[in-house]
From TrEMBL:
Residues 60-106 form the LysM domain. Keywords: Chitin-binding, Signal, Virulence. Gene3D superfamilies: LysM domain. SUPFAM superfamilies: LysM domain (SSF54106). CDD domains: LysM. The keyword Phosphoprotein does not apply. This is Carbohydrate-binding module family 50 protein. GO terms for molecular function: chitin binding. Pfam families: LysM. Residues 1-19 form the signal peptide. It comes from Viridothelium virens (Speckled blister lichen).
Length: 188
């Protein structure tokens, strides 16, 4: 039976209103600047109206669930890298800011996946390689990021990378521990 409620539930996409995909509250003060300043307004019952940016040639979407992380999404599909997920979705930040119940792009026709979804622990990336997710509050001037393995301590990272361990919190948003599966700043 047709009802007003049914109509509402089926309402998903709204036309391309120019909107800002980055609410002030989620903007970081460091390098995490919007990669595009115009987006598509997306409205749904669960998400309300929000602004998101996606490739025009996107062929597959995934609706983010509450509690999802980039790593969990990457592991669920196991067919794209987390850096690629970030490149497809300019509404995401390097911290992996994602809004629940909003679709993100997970494929384009030109993309070929080369496993794994994240490089091995200990790998270094520069910013241009799109390390995702980075620890929150990393300084603007970070030159190299390292992906943190299980049980990795800041003094080990300092010794291996030749920096003073007292610099770790200064470079990594005052964090006193290195977060497993995140990229930490190890050179600045
Ligand atoms: C990954 O898998 C999902 C689910 O099968 C699919 O919709 C999507 O197109 C795939 N993406 C890539 C990059 O292969
Ligand atoms: C590390 O930095 C602290 C604080 O700036 C300083 O007291 C200490 O001497 C430094 N250690 C080394 C090995 O340079
Ligand atoms: C780190 O702590 C200092 C001193 O409390 C504070 O000024 C600074 O804003 C903090 N930085 C971050 C990224 O939280």
């Amino acid at each position: 039976m047709f009802s007003k409620f049914t109509t509402l539930v089926l309402t998903t996409l709204v036309a391309t209103a120019a909107c800002s995909p980055f609410p002030a509250a989620v903007l970081e003060t460091n390098t995490l600047v919007p990669r595009q300043d115009k987006g598509t307004e997306y409205c749904s019952v669960d998400a309300g109206c929000t602004c998101t940016v996606r490739p025009s040639d996107c062929t597959a979407f995934y609706e983010v669930q509450a509690g999802d992380t980039c790593l969990a999404i990457g592991q669920k599909f196991n067919n794209f890298t987390l850096s690629q997920l970030y490149r497809w979705n300019p509404s995401m930040t390097l911290n992996c800011y994602l809004q629940a119940y909003v679709p993100i792009c997970i494929n384009t026709p030109w993309y070929t996946f080369t496993p794994p979804i994240q490089p091995p622990y200990g790998t270094h990336y520069t910013l241009s390689q799109d390390p995702v997710p980075i620890m929150p509050g990393i300084i603007d001037t970070c030159q190299e990021y390292e992906i943190v393995g299980p049980g990795e301590r800041t003094d080990q990272l300092a010794a291996e990378n030749g920096f003073n361990v007292t610099d770790f919190p200064k470079w990594n948003g005052n964090a006193t521990t290195a977060w497993q599966d995140y990229w930490a700043c190890v050179k600045a």
